[in-house]
Model the fold of this input.
Amino acid sequence: MINKRAVSNIVAEIMMILITLAVGFTLIVYLSSAAGGFVSLTNSNSNQAQLALQQYIVPMGSYISNGNLYFIFNSGPLGVQINGVYINSTIVNTCSILFNKTSYSLSHYIPPDAVAVIKCTNVKPVASLVTVSYNGGEVYAMASPS
Done:
């Protein structure tokens, strides 16, 4: 006579619960690691935006001489990306940045705590409002003929 023994109902239910928990745990670990990568990517982009907003320029002086406008500034502790220069709300395309005895065109990054000069050519010798646009915003200064 063949003895047929089966697993009891209680043991079968416990095994089904353990299998379900194992599959659920595996899914949770997989999805949390995938979401963690997404969150770190989002935080990275957010941190870059926050750093850009923390950039600032300290104006040190501005004047107009011989048809050239000079805007002297300090780049602050994080450095600064200069994007554009406006004179009396009009963009000026004849500007360059003088830094470390070298002339750079706009847009250019200036390292932290550096003194640099923005020089714009062909400027009328009248008192003017100078606006310098950078990643952290804008800074304004008055420039008068010397």
About this structure: The chain is about 30% helix and 40% strand.
